[in-house]
Amino acid sequence: MIKRLTLIALGLLALGSAAIAQIATVPQVGLTIGYLPKITYSSSFFGFVPFTGGTDEICISGSATKVVRVNRISLGGTASAIVNLPVTILRRVSLDTGGTAATTTANPGVTTQIASRDTGQATNASATAVLVSYTAAPTIVDSAPVYLDSATMVLSLTGTGAGVGNAVFDWSRDIENNAQVPTLRGAAQQICVNFNGTTPGTASLNGSIAWTEE
Fold first, then answer.
1. How far apart are CA 19 and CA 36, in angstroms?
2. What are phi and psi of 124, to 5 degrees?
């Protein structure tokens, strides 16, 4: 009798363990359980000659239909004289106006230069964020921006072999650590690369911007 009861108890325990093992795990906030890619775009620019005055040189504006999160900005190049160029990344709640937009490959906003990171995703058909670089200074409307990041970018002498690495603003690791990244909500907001009033002489800049639209 005791042996029979023991066997029944063991059977019930085994059934209970199997049932518990089949219960789906409920994801918790901050717990990564798989690769969930977001709609991602990037754009590069080449041979961009910044204007004299060093205000908002390159900008990405938000979208009326998507939340735009900027993951990475990379910038580098050469100049007619070696210069330590202060670079600030700032967010404005009113768009710059006027100015003269660069053309062809010097402008990250040229449609053919905006790339979907995954060509197999139909939802990546076209970006809604707007990018621009300026060859003549825009008019700054928002005079009280939010300063997001800054760095010193060294531009080496044009025509020499003394290359210097890009200034890279990489917020993608913030996502891994559940930190907020620079975000644009609405088409009236923009994030700009600003040179803090410093003119780098005759310069030629290359770089890229990567962002998601959610």
1. 28
2. -90, 20
